[in-house]
TrEMBL record:
Family recorded in the similarity comment: Belongs to the binding-protein-dependent transport system permease family.
GO annotation, cellular component aspect: plasma membrane
Domain ABC transmembrane type-1: 71-262
Protein name per the record: Sugar ABC transporter permease
Classification via PANTHER family: ABC TRANSPORTER PERMEASE PROTEIN MG189-RELATED, ABC TRANSPORTER PERMEASE PROTEIN MG189-RELATED-RELATED
UniProt key word Transmembrane helix: yes
Segments passing through the bilayer: 12-33, 75-97, 109-128, 140-162, 183-205, 241-261
GO terms, biological process: transmembrane transport
Lineage, uppermost ranks: Bacteria, Pseudomonadati, Pseudomonadota, Alphaproteobacteria, Hyphomicrobiales
Intracellular or extracellular location(s): Cell membrane
Main location group: membrane
Length: 277
């Protein structure tokens, strides 16, 4: 009886997982399918097989969206944000994890509030402030905004990693003559590296896909990111949907490849960050 129940449970689990996989993969499959078809065939039947296969959609999408330039802007923006967030958040999280702070509940409320507060609340005063400072159309200026936006989440996550590290390791290093900076950089950072990698992956993906802030603060044609370049492909009166699908696939592929390659580390990092402090 138990064997029958276990087989039924296993069968149901596979069915549910299969349905979930289909829901997750169907949009990507449809994107790949339509990126190889002319626009007329897409409008006629989005589910039809491409006949003939139109490889020039990718060439046209790359040239018209200026991906040779916008990809560099996106990589520069995402990379700068990752470096700033990981460096500042790791320092802040270490202090919050190792020092007894009487006002920790206030800091927790502040970090949670800034994590959940929508950017639309302060995007206009932020824009005028950046305009006064001459930071409009500055990729590094936008990276500063991303850093402020994503740091609270990173601090909360990394703090749980530092809390999980035994204090005896720090005490032993200090007894051996290490400075506090050496303890942090040589002892603590290697141990919490899975958490830092997880933060880097999440921040990188968010920075790569972010649209509102990039569209507001990066307005020159040579400063826009790949996501904005993709958005500009859609015309006011007509659009080549095959080209648009190809451009979307070009943007999605690096993200999917990176996530698949780092999936194991990402899951380990999120699991390690679940320790409650």
């Amino acid at each position: 009886m138990r064997m029958v129940e276990s087989r039924a449970t296993l069968t149901i689990s596979y069915i549910v997982l299969g349905i979930g996989a289909f829901i997750a993969l169907f949009p990507i499959a449809l994107l790949v399918l339509n990126s190889l078809k002319p626009a007329a065939l897409i409008v006629q039947n989005p589910l039809a097989l491409p006949n003939p296969i139109r490889w020039e959609n990718f060439v046209n999408a790359w040239n018209h969206a200026k991906f040779s330039k916008t990809f560099i802007n996106s990589l520069l923006l995402s990379g700068t944000t990752i470096v700033l967030v990981c460096s500042t958040s790791s320092l802040s999280a270490y202090v919050l994890a190792r020092r007894k702070i009487a006002s920790w509940k206030i800091w927790t409320f502040y970090l949670l509030a800034t994590t959940t507060a929508p950017i639309q609340l302060y995007i206009f005063p932020l824009y005028f402030g950046f305009a006064k400072l001459g930071l409009i159309n500055n990729v590094f200026g936008v990276a500063l905004i991303y850093t402020a936006l994503y740091s609270p989440f990173a601090v909360m996550l990394l703090r749980t990693y530092f809390i999980a590290v035994p204090k005896e390791l720090e005490e032993a290093a200090l007894i051996d003559g290490a400075t506090h900076w050496q303890v942090f950089s040589k002892v603590m950072l290697p141990i919490v590296s899975p958490g830092i990698l997880t933060v880097a992956l999440i921040i990188g993906l968010n920075s790569w896909n972010e649209f509102l802030i990039a569209a507001t603060f990066l307005q020159k044609a040579d400063k826009v990111t790949a996501v904005i370049g993709f958005y500009l492909l859609s015309g006011q009166y007509s659009s080549d949907w095959g080209e648009i699908m190809a451009a979307a696939l070009i943007i999605v592929v690096p993200v999917v490849v990176l996530f698949v390659a780092m999936q194991k580390r990402f899951i380990e990092g999120m699991a390690g960050g679940s320790v409650k402090g």
